[in-house]
Write a sequence for this structure.
């Protein structure tokens, strides 16, 4: 039995860490390079390193920050303090966008509030020829975005989405995708300890959580080509409100996709085709 691993599991469980056994296994592999299920135990140097990592996780520092990287779809992203951790729920948002781009040659795509660049990079990797631009305001997140997009062909722009639309050509985008801040004021006051260590700029969507959706559905409509799409990640309870905002701004063929946990996660809005 790997006593060190069992002790680590117990420590993280006592600290209230969700999925403590999974996190313990990840930390063990990070500290030793070995699978705890197949290992007799760490060396003295490895044990010291593991103890330091365990203290950080027990203090509820996000596991992604401790490891310094995290997988998204079929690739790995650099992450750390100052950028939103990529989540598996966002994969359905990217997959939904990719389905809409099928058959389009060299589609022009913008990833707004890009953070690590996970959505834009996912599109670039799986839509050959896509011309992807990732837009991020935060200097802290910018560090990770540029590191992740280096030598990928994805363009990066440091800008505020509340004004960036003014620089875009009319009807130049085939698709705009975004995982904007969407937590409500009440949700911001009741964050999980891990989430509280992520940047508020990437989380706070205003009093009702809809500030960015009002912006995106109204101000970015002119930038999308007729027949093009706006694909938005949403909170699990925001589907009806975001669909209504889209309809009010003239988007059509509106729909909502669920994530793998069965929660509403992606809203799809199409710009009407031009009438003959």
């Amino acid at each position: 039995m790997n006593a060190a691993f069992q002790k680590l599991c117990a420590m993280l469980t006592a600290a209230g860490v969700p999925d403590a056994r999974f996190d313990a296994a990840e930390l063990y592999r990070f500290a030793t390079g070995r699978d705890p299920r197949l290992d007799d135990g760490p060396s003295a140097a490895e044990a010291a390193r593991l103890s330091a990592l365990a203290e950080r996780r027990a203090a509820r520092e996000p596991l992604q920050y401790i490891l310094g990287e995290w997988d998204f779809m079929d690739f790995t992203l650099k992450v750390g303090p100052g950028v939103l951790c990529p989540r598996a729920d966002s994969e359905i948002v990217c997959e939904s966008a990719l389905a809409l781009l099928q058959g389009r040659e060299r589609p022009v795509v913008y990833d707004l509030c890009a953070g690590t660049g996970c959505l834009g990079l996912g599109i670039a990797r799986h839509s050959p020829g896509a011309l992807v631009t990732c837009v991020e305001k935060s200097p802290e997140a910018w560090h990770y975005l540029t590191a992740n997009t280096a030598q990928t062909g994805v363009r990066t722009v440091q800008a505020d989405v509340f004004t960036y639309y003014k620089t875009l050509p009319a009807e130049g985008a085939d698709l705009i995708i975004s995982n904007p801040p969407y937590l409500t004021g009440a949700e911001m006051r009741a964050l999980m300890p891990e989430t509280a260590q992520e940047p508020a700029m990437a989380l706070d969507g205003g009093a009702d959580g809809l500030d960015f959706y009002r912006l995106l559905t109204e101000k970015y409509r002119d930038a999308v080509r007729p027949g093009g799409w706006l694909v938005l990640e949403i909170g699990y309870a925001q589907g009806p409100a975001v669909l209504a905002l889209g309809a009010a701004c003239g988007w059509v063929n509106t729909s909502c996709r669920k994530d793998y946990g069965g929660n509403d996660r992606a809203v799809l809005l199409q710009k009407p085709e031009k009438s003959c």
